Amino acid sequence: MAESASSSANPSPILHLAQDHLLTILLLLPVDSIVSFGMTCKRFSSIATSDAVWESICKRDLGPSSMDALKSSLHHHPIPWMRLYKELTLLHSVSCCKLSSHPDVNSLVPSPRASHSINFVSDYLVLFGGGCEGGRHLDDTWVAYFGNNFRRMPRWQKIHSGVPSGRFGHSCVVIDNYLVLFGGIDDRGNRHNDTWVAQFVTHQDNIGITLSWRLLDVNSIAPPPRGAHAACCISNRKMVIHGGIGLHGLRLGDTWVLELSENVFFGAWSEVVAHPSPPPRSGHTLTSIGGTQTVLFGGRGLGYEVLSDVWLLDMSEGCSKWEQIQYELQNVPQGFSLPRVGHSALLMLGGLVLIYGGEDSHRHRKDDFWVLDISAIPSVRGQQAGRLKSKANMWRRLEAEGYKPNSRSFHRACADSSGRNLYVFGGMVDGLAHPAESSGLRFDGELFLVELLLQL
């Protein structure tokens, strides 16, 4: 009784803190701790569930650009930020929409292709190269505007920009307003190891576009020639590549990082040597998940087997380390297969890695969407203390509503600056509906939009 009376007479000092001070403290905590804090008393509950707190949490965990895009989309559909955060964390579906070309009879469109590159930069889609029917390469560059006045009928423009030589299976990443391209294969089977940079400049009112490629000076050190490798950008300044098909068709398992100079006139390649490291492969993906961490998934291995392993590359503090992320295949919903090659994998709004399509070891192409929940990976959770800890398996299959695109592999995809919209172009699709095609396969020239489906 004496202790109880003393406690009542001397309440905890935290009860006397001003609300703005409590807000500052809360934003230093992970989400599950904020929820627990809100359960302690009525006053703390009202603070911990307030819209102001959860708007700040969204800004902290999603980033400024994603928040700007969300506020714009929520302008006519207000929704509590706490509910929005929960929906992103437990996302269960996406919406697909085919984007038809502009009806202008004079408008041109990119030809069907696969193993090309497509990037989102300065509110434009930028498409380059790829392979087409007959095993031929392409060397064209196309752009389409998807800014504030987004239309469901994009107008493609072909850009003459002194492009690199024609190729497919190359990699291309965005660093600031630059595109950085490496490697690829031409229609004679030659593998390349050249590095190109293009600066993308839009002029007033988006009338007129400048995109000029130039060969980057990297001195004498460069990765061996290859194609069908994986690449991504980390730390907003570096390009990382891994694996691919090298000379004589040999699959590679090496990792390289390119660091650009401040003026982007020079670059320096260096090999990342770490043990253990992912086995050699091609047709896999590398996805930057923020900071210095990158996730590798799938691909085709040395024995031509299709893989489903997950690896995490951490390049923090000058010490690069690969770590295989173990998971239980029996936790994957029955009737679905995770191993795949020629898929796409991108970081989306809410810190989710969205994986689409690809093909299995029997060349069966896929049309499924999966979320790799990186918050379920212990090594990532340690770096992202603010994220809500996942209590579920790190794999989750999403339902797709709306338009039903053909199953495909070796397509390419990119996300816009908000991370909510994913653009998919091309790839290899089944040609069985076209009996005249003896191969049973055909190159696709379709562009469609995939949108994270939030209940706004």
Automatic annotation (TrEMBL):
- Alphabetic keyword roster: Kelch repeat
What name does the UniProt record give this protein? F-box domain-containing protein
Q: Which organism is it from?
A: Rubroshorea leprosula
Q: Cite the InterPro entries for this sequence.
A: F-box-like_dom_sf, F-box_dom, Kelch-typ_b-propeller
Top-level taxonomy? Eukaryota, Viridiplantae, Streptophyta, Embryophyta, Tracheophyta
Which domain of life does the UniProt lineage start with?
Answer: Eukaryota
Stretches assigned to the F-box domain: 11-57
